[in-house]
Design brief:
Keywords: DNA-binding, Transcription, Transcription regulation. This is Crp/Fnr family transcriptional regulator. The protein is an alpha+beta fold and 220 residues long. Helix content is 37%, strand content 24%. β10 and β11 form a beta hairpin. α4 packs antiparallel against α5. The model has no long low-confidence stretch (mean pLDDT 89).
Length: 220
């Protein structure tokens, strides 16, 4: 286990690798590996653990009764998922979680985060504060996606998303974590229609696209 890496994540920030190692034993931490495309959790599951991505990445997906899938979020190394459901005993998942690539997940028992252990870990207060920050950050990410979905046109949704990434990465040239199909799912549009719109934006000199790298030319 890479305790140096874990101590730099949002959940364990402010703790040393040694403190992180001690807390993991309190949280009944269990690592598990998944192959790309594997289902980690599915709609209707009940969970009491949250997942922290150690390597690889996972997709949080909304799947309707007809099997149509929409990507709500991509969870990268160091980020967590499932914390909200794990805090509500008996709550059934309304989302699915799938391995976007080969990945390793560290599962943590949420109930033990909010109840101090018998050893009264001196860093437990930090863990609770970090957990609240993680949940607030996740709510913010969902709000951002709602903003991207607000425009009716595909171009409007693309520009909303690209503008956010440009601001967060501090450059008009930025990387996105999605391939073409995943981006279409994330923005709730048809892949062919999205590809056509990207082509139009390139011809109009608005953007340049090189796989996952976008150059927003109108800001130059």
């Amino acid at each position: 286990m890479n305790y140096e890496f874990l101590s730099r994540t949002f959940l364990f920030q402010g703790t040393s690798p040694e403190e992180t190692k001690h807390m993991l034993s309190c949280l009944k931490a269990t690592p598990q590996s998944y192959a790309k495309g594997s289902t980690i959790w599915q709609v209707g599951d009940q969970v009491k653990m949250m997942g922290l991505v150690l390597n690889g990445s996972v997709h949080i997906e909304s799947i309707d009764m007809m099997g149509n899938k929409s990507i709500l979020n991509r969870i990268a190394p160091g980020q967590v998922f499932g914390e909200t459901y794990a805090c509500i005993p008996g709550e059934k998942l309304l989302i699915g979680v799938t391995a976007a690539e080969d990945c390793q997940i560290l599962f943590l028992e949420v109930g033990k985060i909010f109840h101090t252990c018998p050893d009264t870990c001196p860093c437990h207060e930090k863990l609770i504060r970090n957990m609240l920050m993680v949940m607030a950050k996740k709510n913010l990410e969902l709000s951002r996606r709602s903003l991207h979905m607000a425009p009716k046109s595909i171009r409007g949704r693309l520009l909303s998303y690209f503008s956010q990434e440009m601001v967060q990465q501090g450059s008009s040239r930025f990387m996105i974590p999605f391939n073409r199909q995943e981006l279409a799912d994330y923005l709730g549009v048809d892949r062919s229609a999205l590809s056509n719109e990207l082509g139009k934006m390139r011809k109009e000199g608005i953007i340049e696209v090189n796989r996952n790298q976008i150059h927003y030319l109108e800001c130059v």
